[in-house]
Design a protein that fits this description.
Number of strands: 0
Largest sheet: none
Structural class: mainly alpha
Oligomer: single chain
Helix content: 40-55%
Order of helices and strands: HHHHHH
Number of helices: 6
Distance between the termini: 64 Å
Strand content: under 5%
Radius of gyration: 22 Å
Protein backbone atom coordinates (compact mmCIF):
# COMPACT_ATOMS: atom_id res chain seq x y z
CA UNK A 1 0.00 0.00 0.00
CA UNK A 2 1.45 3.35 -0.99
CA UNK A 3 1.53 6.42 1.20
CA UNK A 4 -1.21 7.94 -0.93
CA UNK A 5 -3.51 4.91 -0.52
CA UNK A 6 -2.96 4.80 3.21
CA UNK A 7 -4.21 8.39 3.46
CA UNK A 8 -7.40 7.46 1.57
CA UNK A 9 -8.27 4.21 3.26
CA UNK A 10 -6.25 4.66 6.43
CA UNK A 11 -5.74 2.41 9.37
CA UNK A 12 -8.29 2.04 12.14
CA UNK A 13 -6.60 4.58 14.36
CA UNK A 14 -6.12 7.21 11.63
CA UNK A 15 -8.62 9.78 10.47
CA UNK A 16 -9.43 9.76 6.77
CA UNK A 17 -9.22 13.38 5.64
CA UNK A 18 -8.05 13.16 2.03
CA UNK A 19 -10.30 14.30 -0.82
CA UNK A 20 -11.88 11.43 -2.81
CA UNK A 21 -10.41 12.74 -6.05
CA UNK A 22 -6.93 12.08 -4.68
CA UNK A 23 -7.92 8.55 -3.66
CA UNK A 24 -9.16 7.71 -7.15
CA UNK A 25 -6.25 9.50 -8.83
CA UNK A 26 -8.46 11.88 -10.84
CA UNK A 27 -8.72 15.65 -11.00
CA UNK A 28 -11.14 17.43 -8.67
CA UNK A 29 -13.08 18.85 -11.60
CA UNK A 30 -13.39 15.37 -13.14
CA UNK A 31 -14.58 13.94 -9.82
CA UNK A 32 -17.29 16.59 -9.41
CA UNK A 33 -18.32 16.28 -13.07
CA UNK A 34 -18.74 12.54 -12.49
CA UNK A 35 -20.93 13.22 -9.43
CA UNK A 36 -23.23 15.49 -11.47
CA UNK A 37 -23.40 13.18 -14.51
CA UNK A 38 -26.77 11.72 -15.43
CA UNK A 39 -27.17 7.93 -15.61
CA UNK A 40 -26.37 6.37 -18.98
CA UNK A 41 -29.06 4.99 -21.28
CA UNK A 42 -27.89 1.46 -20.53
CA UNK A 43 -28.25 2.03 -16.79
CA UNK A 44 -31.70 3.55 -17.27
CA UNK A 45 -32.84 0.58 -19.39
CA UNK A 46 -31.40 -1.80 -16.82
CA UNK A 47 -33.26 -0.07 -13.99
CA UNK A 48 -36.59 -0.15 -15.83
CA UNK A 49 -36.05 -3.83 -16.70
CA UNK A 50 -35.22 -4.57 -13.04
CA UNK A 51 -38.48 -2.92 -11.96
CA UNK A 52 -40.48 -4.89 -14.54
CA UNK A 53 -38.87 -8.17 -13.54
CA UNK A 54 -39.39 -7.49 -9.84
CA UNK A 55 -43.09 -6.69 -10.35
CA UNK A 56 -43.63 -9.80 -12.51
CA UNK A 57 -41.70 -11.91 -9.99
CA UNK A 58 -43.89 -10.79 -7.09
CA UNK A 59 -47.05 -10.91 -9.22
CA UNK A 60 -46.48 -14.63 -9.71
CA UNK A 61 -45.87 -15.22 -5.99
CA UNK A 62 -42.08 -15.55 -6.36
CA UNK A 63 -42.45 -18.88 -8.14
CA UNK A 64 -41.23 -17.93 -11.61
CA UNK A 65 -37.59 -18.25 -12.59
CA UNK A 66 -35.85 -16.64 -15.55
CA UNK A 67 -37.33 -18.96 -18.20
CA UNK A 68 -40.95 -18.52 -17.14
CA UNK A 69 -40.48 -14.79 -16.63
CA UNK A 70 -39.07 -14.51 -20.14
CA UNK A 71 -42.26 -15.98 -21.54
CA UNK A 72 -44.44 -13.62 -19.47
CA UNK A 73 -42.41 -10.44 -20.02
CA UNK A 74 -43.63 -7.96 -22.64
CA UNK A 75 -41.50 -7.77 -25.74
CA UNK A 76 -39.25 -4.77 -26.35
CA UNK A 77 -39.26 -3.53 -29.98
CA UNK A 78 -40.87 -6.79 -31.08
CA UNK A 79 -38.09 -8.94 -29.59
CA UNK A 80 -38.24 -10.86 -26.30
CA UNK A 81 -35.70 -10.17 -23.59
CA UNK A 82 -32.73 -12.51 -23.54
CA UNK A 83 -32.83 -15.29 -20.94
CA UNK A 84 -29.37 -14.37 -19.61
CA UNK A 85 -30.42 -10.73 -19.21
CA UNK A 86 -33.40 -11.74 -17.07
CA UNK A 87 -31.30 -14.21 -15.07
CA UNK A 88 -28.66 -11.54 -14.42
CA UNK A 89 -31.35 -9.11 -13.27
CA UNK A 90 -32.77 -11.68 -10.85
CA UNK A 91 -29.31 -12.39 -9.48
CA UNK A 92 -28.46 -8.68 -9.18
CA UNK A 93 -31.64 -8.10 -7.15
CA UNK A 94 -31.23 -11.24 -5.05
CA UNK A 95 -34.52 -12.72 -6.23
CA UNK A 96 -34.71 -16.52 -6.10
CA UNK A 97 -37.78 -18.50 -7.15
CA UNK A 98 -39.37 -20.77 -4.60
CA UNK A 99 -39.05 -24.45 -5.34
CA UNK A 100 -42.28 -26.29 -6.08
CA UNK A 101 -43.45 -28.60 -3.32
CA UNK A 102 -44.86 -32.02 -3.89
CA UNK A 103 -48.61 -32.22 -3.28
CA UNK A 104 -49.53 -34.35 -0.26
CA UNK A 105 -53.00 -35.53 0.62
Amino acid sequence: MTCHESRCFGQRDQNVTSHPSRCFNVSRSGYYAWLQRKPSQRLQRRQTLDEQIKSQFHKHKQRYGAERLQRKMPKENGKPYDLKTIAASLKRQGLVAKAARKFKV
